[in-house]
Automatic annotation (TrEMBL):
Pfam families: EPSP_synthase. Keywords: Cell cycle, Cell division, Cell shape, Cell wall biogenesis/degradation, Cytoplasm, Peptidoglycan synthesis, Pyruvate, Transferase. InterPro entries: Enolpyruvate_Tfrase_dom (IPR001986), Enolpyruvate_Tfrase_sf (IPR036968), MurA_subfamily (IPR050068), RNA3'P_cycl/enolpyr_Trfase_a/b (IPR013792), UDP_GlcNAc_COvinyl_MurA (IPR005750). Residues 10-410 form the Enolpyruvate transferase domain. It catalyses: phosphoenolpyruvate + UDP-N-acetyl-alpha-D-glucosamine = UDP-N-acetyl-3-O-(1-carboxyvinyl)-alpha-D-glucosamine + phosphate. It is found in: Cytoplasm. This is UDP-N-acetylglucosamine 1-carboxyvinyltransferase. GO terms for cellular component: cytoplasm. One of its GO terms (biological process) is cell division.
Amino acid sequence: MTGQEFIEIEGGTPLSGSVCVQGSKNAILPMLAASLLPEKGCSVIRNVPPLNDILVAFELMRYVGARVDYFPNEKVVSVDATHLTRSDLPESLTCRLRASVLFIPPLLARLGEVRLPSVGGCPLGARNLNYHYRGFARLGAQITSEDDFVISGEDFTGTTMYLDFPSHTGTENLMMAACYSTGVSVIENAASDPEITDFANFLIKMGAKIHGLGTRTLTVEGVPALNPIDYYAMNDRLDAGLWMMAAGIAGGKISIIGVAPGDIRILIEKMMQMGIDIGINGHVLDVSSPGRHLKPVNVLTCPYPGFATDFQPAIMALSCVADGQSYIRERIFDKRFSQVAELRKLGASIELDEEDGLAIVNGPTTFRGADTNPDNIRAASCILLAGLACPEKTIIRNVYQIDRGHFDIESRFQQLGARVVRK
Ligand SMILES: CC(=O)N[C@H]1[C@@H](OP(=O)(O)OP(=O)(O)OC[C@H]2O[C@@H](n3ccc(=O)[nH]c3=O)[C@H](O)[C@@H]2O)O[C@H](CO)[C@@H](O)[C@@H]1O
Ligand SMILES: C=C(OP(=O)(O)O)C(=O)O
């Protein structure tokens, strides 16, 4: 990948064929961190796509002394963390990966101290980490510097932790730390996303005792040690959603292989409200759409099981081609509308009140070709989708963002007959 790379889309072709869903980045990242917990032996994680964020996580793990062997064709990684040597994470890596924060619990458990400089990830607004640090402090950690986040302590005692908001990685982090704390911990108002349940199952396979999976209250009984395991990570509901919405906006009929329909039921519901046909055949979704004359939609993002904020930019692309006004309300992040400026370059008519977290989309738009520069994964997905409905050429720069979240995107689109090329 070079900085000059871009993706070019020439839309207007209906999609046909089948596409397989990749492994879930947001489930695999905490698993990679937790694979540093066992004191001896190799853990194996399967269904691991070569996404930029995952590759950066491998670099962080190697930096602290773990041996990481990755087999991209088999999508398998093995991790041996027997000889960890350091826990001062380098900013050159943490500034590229928000999930760097997930390395705090294993490094505390193994080495007793962590230095975590600023963390990167999608620029979506404030993205505070106060629930993480408050939770670690309640378990017994000392936060010795808030500037560079130096945190220390290893003998934690179970406690009750309440999250003011059900933070996704906050829940994962405190659940992971509670696993090796003495006694019982309760995490109230926890996030209940499917990735958290899959991660909890990963920890349980390692020997952890976690109760309340999939609910908003998690109870964790501390255990003396966690063991290396071999685990098959869940598929990525965000990748599945991208393909569903691609068929929705481009038109045509595709089959999406490897979906847990229950994990994306609100997206299915909203797309059906827009006039898109979705057939559920076990773990395969058959999506067919006219691609035009979609119905407008109202969306309000919420913690799981509500409408996922990570789908908000993409469904905005669909709402642009709908006949009428759509209302899209963002309630998770304070700056999650960066795709609006890029969609406007393609001719979209969107009234934006970012303070109120409201975008009113005036459809239908006939997109025109444009040169775009989305600043995060889901904004890039949004423009990819808009490009499929645009008869002229759409350029997407900053391809690094797409490659953080979706593996081999152009080949998988080409497989469905779309004209999407990397140049
Ligand atoms: C790697 C990963 O899994 N990323 C996902 C994770 O991000 P991430 O875990 O960072 O998102 P959170 O659920 O923590 O954030 C949700 C909201 O809570 C606030 N907050 C969070 C923690 C905290 O200590 N203090 C605080 O105020 C944030 O500023 C934000 O407004 O969940 C998001 C919301 O579903 C998704 O968009 C991301 O794709
Ligand atoms: C927001 C995302 O990732 P991160 O939390 O790592 O920025 C994402 O996957 O859309």
